[in-house]
Input
Amino acid sequence: MSATAPGSQRSASASSRAPRSRWPLPLAVPVATWRLLRVWIHVLGALARTYTVWRALDRPRLEAVTRVWSGQLLAILGLRLVVHGTPRPGAKLIVSNHVSWLDIVAINAVAPSRFVSKAEVARWPLVGRLVTYARTLYLVRERRRDAMRVLGLMAQAMKDGDTVAVFPEGTTGPGDHVMHLHPNLLQAAIDAHVPVQPVVIRYEDPFHRFSPEPAYVGDTNLLQSLWWVVSARDVTVHVGFLAPQAVAHADRRALAARLHEGMSAYLEQTP
Output
């Protein structure tokens, strides 16, 4: 789990937001309210278990719990998950495009990972406890040198067998293209000698190949985004796992360019 601020980019489909894949008006509020209630129960239940039955879980069991809990959350929110390709077993760095806060849930529903997040998320009510419990790696963005510390933590986590996931675009976008990938965090995989596996996430609905409903962009705040998601109808999240990339003798900038090329081609070619 992790959290991000909304990106500034917005596609034409996201800005117009018409037609919307929403429930008809007589059903919209009851459906959304019921989903929100179930989300609240699901989150509170997980929070309680972090203090009880989940406290002593080892890594394999924690990953299993994370996978199931995340899949259940997607279902409660009304999203259908479709997985393409296979996550590489063992330690790796997952590099994904970034559309929504839902990306974290979608990845964890398939390949439970340790995410990098801004440090203030740890202080958020309720959610902060869950994010910390998921062994998130926190970055203090106000400290210019903290990125080096986090790179070391990422490399050590992967050396210990963990999967770490990052969104090197640095912000969320509309999802219709892969934005520039910042190469800095890729250095952790190079230092740990573990492969990088690119992941492409795409949301669709009956009206849009790139659904605007989950897009966390522009002036959208988290509560607005959550309401749009629970109000949406027939949204599918596609999670595509591309072939892992070796990092031996790699230059992080060249690696980022290669990943961007492959992820962009995948996004354009998938139906």
Observations:
- The mean pLDDT is 91.
